[in-house]
Each structure stands twice: as C-alpha cells, then as structure tokens.
C-alpha cells in the first residue's frame, strides 16, 4: 500500500481509504463484531484511513476495530450540523462513540452549493475552533457538487475536500465528470487534501470494477479514494488492485458469485426517472418512493445512472 500526505493536513494516509458506509445499518447492516472484523482485515493489509459519518451508524464498528487491532488509523467523519450546538454534539458523539480524544478530519456532510456552505457557517466556525484546540486536526467538506469543490478551493479554512468521482460521473449533482475533475485539480493545486468517494458509482458500475478502480488510481490529483467494503474478500480484492497486484482467483470468483441487491435510499423523492430507465419493468412507485421487484431486477445499474438524488445503490 502506498501512503501520501493528505494536502497540508500533516496526515499520512493510504491511497485506499476504508469507506465506512456499507457495513452500517443503512446498507449491509453488519453487527459490530462482523463490521469490525472487515475493518481489522483492511488495517492489517495496510489501509490506515477510514471514512465515516454520524449518519452511517458505524462508530461502534470502528471503535471495536481499533480496540481489536491495537492500531489507530486516520479517521475522517462528518455531520449535517449547521449550528454551533449541533456541531458540538456531533463532534462529541464521534469522540465518545469511537473512544477517541481527537478526530483527525471532521467535515460538513454533503454540501450542495455555496448557499448551503454559507448556511453551515456557524457549524464551520465551531469546527475551526475545535481545530484550534487540537480536538480535530483538519476541517473539511464532503460533496457531490462541482460548485462546492470550486467554492472550497477559495476557502483557506477548508483543509480537505471529499468529492464524488467515478468514470461515469454517476452522482455528480451539477455537471460532468470532466468538469468535476477540473475543479478537483484546481483544489489540489491549492494544497487541499483530496480523497474521493464512490469509485463504483454506488455499485452501479460493478460490471467494470477493475477499470473503475484504475480510473481513480490514474488521477494524479487525488490523494486517496474511499472504497466501501463489506467483506474480507472485498478488502483483499481492493487492496490487491490498489497495490497493483493480481487479485487471487478464488477471491474474484467468490465476489462474482456474491448475491447482490438493489438498495433504494430513504431520501428517494419519487421522481420516477428510474422507472422510465429500467427496461425490465422492475421498478414501481409506492407511497412516493421507488420500489424494486427483485424477481425482475437484473442488477444492470442503469437506473442508478439517472437518479438525481443518488439514491440507488447495488450492494
Ligand atoms: S430516480 Fe431516484 S429519486 Fe427518482 S424515483 Fe428513482 S430512486 Fe427515487
Ligand atoms: S438495476 Fe437494472 S434491472 Fe434493476 S431496477 Fe435498475 S435498471 Fe432495472
């Protein structure tokens, strides 16, 4: 595993970051023990960087993995806090539930525009004070939007940007992958720490797995990439790819045979775009939300590419 300095934060991180969303209750819903076992395997294979969020419900899994492994990875977390009080509660929850005095990177979660950044000013000020006190080491912003990457480039107080990047541009809210890369490159050149998310477009690009990983690995202005993993086999496969090594045949076979499912997040707004895109007639609307008929779904991932809310995942 290769390690790099995350911008000007002083943090040394592995090129692959453990994406903590999938193991938690929003997706695979692994128990604390099961989730910790997957994380421990990643730590033992050289991953030293974990991405999580208050929303993901994975603080207990991370805490257990740190306890079991005796290793202290770099932790990045985030929350939707917009007031100072909410920011304080979020940061304290992270510290308490992961049993950590210091959270390495704390971010504003999923910022959508310059306006939303402005609306979170009070929380930002709280996190910057926390950085002054040494409770966090770096302040950051996670986003699916190019406008936010551009805005953060101009904000000296933003140390880390966590943008969505995949070869098809799935999930980018306001433009194309080329426009996103242009903004990310400019931010990188300003010294921001850049770790990207969703190299597989939320599982919708699983059919071109190696190509997707190589795509992000070949971008010279990304320090690290968060990859969601829910099993030891997935850890081995991803670490092998990031190390430029052959993926063991039995691991690849096991993952090809893995039962996967379409997951529709609770924030689906029922726009119906996915229904029109699905050639299998596998999607319908019920009480204003998209629903999948598992018997008809062939897991092609086409629906995920048209969802404006990035609410469709294959996991
Ligand atoms: S495209 Fe996305 S937001 Fe629209 S109905 Fe489908 S899942 Fe919901
Ligand atoms: S993954 Fe493919 S088959 Fe399944 S619901 Fe989406 S578009 Fe339809």
Description:
There is one protein chain. The protein is of the alpha/beta class. It has two domains: 3-256, Alpha-Beta Barrel (TIM Barrel); 262-314, 2-Layer Sandwich (Alpha-Beta Plaits), CATH 3.30.70.20. The protein is 37% helix and 20% strand. It is built from twelve helices and 14 strands. It has helices at 32-44, 59-69, 84-98, 114-119, 121-132, 146-153, 177-189, 209-217, 232-242, 249-256, 273-277, 302-306; strands at 3-5, 12-14, 16-19, 49-51, 74-79, 103-111, 136-143, 160-163, 193-196, 224-228, 262-264, 283-286, 289-292, 312-314. The strands form four sheets. An eight-stranded parallel beta barrel has the order 3-4-5-6-7-8-9-10, surrounded by six helices. Helix 8 (209-217) links the parallel strand 9 (193-196) and strand 10 (224-228). Helix 1 (32-44) packs parallel to helix 9. The protein starts with a strand and ends with a strand. 49% of the residues are buried. The model has no long low-confidence stretch (mean pLDDT 95). Bound molecules: iron/sulfur cluster (2 copies). One iron/sulfur cluster (SF4) binds at residues 262, 277-278, 280, 282-283, 292, 297-303.
């Amino acid at each position: 595993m290769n390690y790099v300095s995350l911008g000007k934060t002083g943090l040394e991180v592995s090129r692959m970051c453990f994406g903590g969303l999938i193991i938690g209750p929003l997706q695979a819903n692994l128990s604390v023990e099961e989730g910790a076992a997957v994380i421990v395997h990643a730590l033992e294979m050289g991953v030293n960087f974990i991405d999580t969020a208050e929303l993901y419900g994975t603080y207990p899994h991370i805490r257990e993995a740190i306890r079991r492994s005796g290793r202290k990875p770099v932790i990045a977390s985030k929350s939707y806090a917009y007031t100072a009080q909410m920011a304080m509660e979020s940061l304290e929850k992270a510290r308490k539930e992961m049993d950590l005095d210091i959270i390495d990177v704390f971010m504003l979660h999923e910022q959508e525009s310059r306006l939303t950044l402005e609306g979170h000013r009070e929380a930002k000020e709280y996190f910057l004070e926390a950085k002054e006190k040494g409770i966090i080491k770096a302040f950051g912003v996670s986003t699916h939007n190019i406008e936010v990457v551009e805005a953060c480039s101009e904000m000296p107080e933003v140390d880390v940007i966590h943008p969505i990047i995949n070869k098809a541009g799935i999930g980018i809210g306001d433009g194309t992958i080329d426009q996103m890369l242009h903004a990310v490159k400019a931010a990188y050149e300003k010294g921001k720490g850049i770790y990207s998310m969703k190299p597989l477009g939320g599982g919708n690009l699983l059919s071109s797995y190696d190509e997707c990983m190589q795509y992000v690995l070949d971008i010279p202005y990304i320090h690290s990439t968060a990859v969601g993993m829910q099993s030891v086999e997935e850890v081995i496969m991803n670490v092998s790819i990031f190390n430029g090594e052959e993926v063991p045949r039995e691991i690849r076979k096991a993952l090809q045979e893995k039962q996967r499912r379409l997951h529709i997040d609770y924030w689906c707004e029922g726009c119906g775009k996915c229904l029109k895109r699905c050639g299998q007639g596998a999607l319908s609307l019920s009480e204003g939300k998209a629903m999948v008929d598992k018997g008809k779904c062939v897991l092609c991932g086409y629906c995920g590419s048209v969802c404006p809310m990035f609410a469709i995942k294959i996991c």
